[in-house]
Amino acid sequence: MAVERQTLVFYMGIASSGMISQRLIQHGLSASTPVAIIERGTQPEQRVMTSVLGTLAMMIELHAVETPTLLIIGDVVTLYREANTFYNETNALRSAITPRCSVG
């Protein structure tokens, strides 16, 4: 499974995240391969965290990630980061230039 320019998705993989990252690195993936952790996807309390393969297990422990969770490993995570940054910057700009009106 350790093939560059490929996306891997693990369903319910948080308990095995240390082994997953270790084995993928052993078989050739870079420790700096982007990773997304999606907790409770599509639910109101959804959380999305991004990291790199070498710190995947540490991030899960640090943020007390719970199931249900998806682990997404690969360059596609970079697209998420870029899209999210663009979305946030666009909304911040829109808010800054939108006239404020008050009804009184």
TrEMBL record:
Pathway entry: Cofactor biosynthesis; adenosylcobalamin biosynthesis
Taxonomy, superkingdom: Bacteria
Coiled-coil regions listed: none
SUPFAM superfamilies, alphabetized: Tetrapyrrole methylase (SSF53790)
Name of the featured protein: Tetrapyrrole methylase domain-containing protein
Species the sequence originates in: Rouxiella silvae
